[in-house]
Amino acid sequence: MSFSRSVPKAFGKVTGYYKGFRDSIFHQDYRSAFLMEYFVYIIYSESSDRYYVGQCQDISERIKRHNTGRSKYTKIAIDWKVKYTEKFGSRSEAMIREKDIKRKKSRKYIEFLVKENEA
């Protein structure tokens, strides 16, 4: 498949220059500078005795949102602490892992992950 086919028709025909740029070493370095890390995290509130599983790019900013009541599902408490994190190279990978953990619907599994992380 050529590059010009992957561009929507609204943008018109793409010249060979862009196709060459896409494959250049410079472009690869340029893309890697903007690749972000994504995290799956488990937080725990002692006051509500609950765990919460989520994914984000910036854990510290996300915890601030949880602890200031700006998150719908965690506004019941303001003492959330990070107990577990996993790092991923893409958001889709992080979302798959988050769903995998949530799909188990098991507090024991979450506590197992937290315990393994502490060891």
From TrEMBL:
InterPro entries: GIY-YIG_endonuc, GIY-YIG_endonuc_sf, UPF0213_domain. Residues 36-111 form the GIY-YIG domain. SUPFAM superfamilies: GIY-YIG endonuclease (SSF82771). Pfam families: GIY-YIG (PF01541). Belongs to the UPF0213 family. This is GIY-YIG catalytic domain-containing protein.
